[in-house]
């Protein structure tokens, strides 16, 4: 029978180091393992690389092979495709599960990180604009002061589990086509912790924490808006076993304002002024977030015109500067006139030559008769 080329089977040089041989085998094992590729040709190829690795990973067998002798002649190993008694099965496990070989995880810690919490904070528009400080009452879990998080009653401590002997896991050996396979699972008696609390703390029932209500003072920055989330690191609840706390998130809810409508960092409002004031001009006292300010209505102001008050809006979040306050003007036309007012209006119309105004239609606008026709046609 022709001698097998073990180096060629693994794709390594004849002077390859033990680490290079191991890496080559693990790479091929991940590709050719029967659980991944169950076809017969792949299984036969897997047996070949396994036999090659069994020889080249053993310094004595490799030396015999390099000298041209049969490395299995002494009966130290299994036949073709088999596993010798000293074959490191963990290398197959390493190929799939990493260097740990699927075991050696150790006991789980009782201390785990606490959960995050979210509370809603309602703000007025001025509080969102300029920021504020709030005292919040939070129902949360805190460290048990009696056992300081250990979960054990005062004067006692957790006992080492007699089933797993503190390892937190138990092992079981089964047989498969690969030989004997050792699997590990969390210890059913201690839950994987490696120890058992036989005398739990009466204050926290062994959890290491208790629920309570506490008050915290938080600073809400200027510029937040409805839906903003603010993270307060470490202000959440303490974890089981005295583990580190989670985070607290504040969800901002902005109350509607009776005058202003917020659009981003700009504020919008509408002011109603009489026709005479729009024609002649006037000064209005305007309420803003900064207090009363005078608003100059220029003569000839038109309905729908926007008057800006710069930097009277919302503070930019985490930036300098503010948005603007945009005032939309709506001109009120009188619907009822007494005799004297009507006479004055007619006199004004005569003076302006507007007794029979021709009307002006902007491009794209419908005439009165067109709108009337569309109404009857149901458009």
From TrEMBL:
NCBIfam families in alphabetical order: DnaJ_bact, PRK10767.1, PRK14278.1
Family designation: Belongs to the DnaJ family.
Span of zinc fingers (CR-type): 131-213
Protein name: Chaperone protein DnaJ
Domain notes: The J domain is necessary and sufficient to stimulate DnaK ATPase activity. Zinc center 1 plays an important role in the autonomous, DnaK-independent chaperone activity of DnaJ. Zinc center 2 is essential for interaction with DnaK and for DnaJ activity.
Main localization (coarse): cytoplasm
Cofactor: Zn(2+)
Organism from which the protein derives: Streptosporangium subroseum
Keywords of this entry: Chaperone, Cytoplasm, DNA replication, Metal-binding, Repeat, Stress response, Zinc, Zinc-finger
């Amino acid at each position: 029978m022709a001698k097998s080329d073990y180096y060629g089977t693994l794709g390594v040089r004849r002077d390859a180091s033990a680490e290079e041989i191991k890496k080559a085998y693990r790479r091929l094992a991940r590709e050719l393992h029967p659980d991944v590729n169950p076809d017969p040709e792949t299984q036969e190829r897997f047996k070949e690389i396994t036999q090659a690795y069994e020889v080249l990973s053993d310094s004595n067998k490799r030396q015999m092979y390099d000298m041209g002798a049969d490395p299995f002649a002494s009966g130290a190993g299994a036949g073709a495709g088999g596993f010798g008694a000293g074959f490191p099965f963990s290398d197959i496990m390493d190929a799939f599960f990493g260097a740990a070989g699927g075991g050696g995880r150790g006991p789980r810690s009782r201390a785990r990180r606490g959960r995050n919490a979210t509370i809603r904070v309602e703000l007025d528009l001025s509080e969102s604009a300029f920021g504020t400080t709030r005292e919040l009452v939070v129902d949360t879990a805190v460290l048990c002061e009696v056992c300081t998080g250990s979960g054990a009653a005062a004067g006692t401590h957790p006992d080492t589990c007699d089933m797993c002997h503190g390892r937190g896991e138990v092992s079981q050996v089964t047989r498969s086509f690969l030989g004997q396979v050792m699997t590990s699972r969390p210890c059913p008696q201690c839950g994987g912790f490696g120890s058992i609390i036989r005398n739990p703390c009466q204050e926290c029932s062994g959890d290491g924490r208790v629920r309570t209500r506490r008050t915290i003072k938080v600073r809400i920055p200027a510029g937040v808006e409805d839906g903003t989330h603010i993270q307060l690191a470490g202000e959440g609840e303490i974890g089981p076993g005295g583990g580190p706390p989670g985070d607290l998130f504040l969800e901002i809810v902005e109350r509607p304002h009776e005058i202003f409508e917020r659009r981003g960092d700009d504020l919008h409002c509408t002011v109603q002024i009489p026709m005479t004031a729009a024609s002649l001009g006037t000064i209005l006292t305007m309420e803003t977030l900064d207090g009363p300010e005078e608003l100059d209505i220029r003569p000839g102001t038109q309905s729908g015109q926007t008057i800006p008050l710069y930097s009277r809006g919302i503070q930019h979040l985490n930036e300098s500067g503010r948005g603007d306050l945009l005032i939309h003007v709506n001109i009120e036309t009188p619907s009822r006139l007494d005799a004297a007012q009507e006479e004055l209006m007619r006199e004004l119309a005569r003076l302006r030559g507007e007794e029979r105004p021709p009307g002006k239609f902007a491009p794209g606008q419908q005439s009165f008769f067109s709108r009337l026709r569309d109404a009857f046609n149901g458009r």
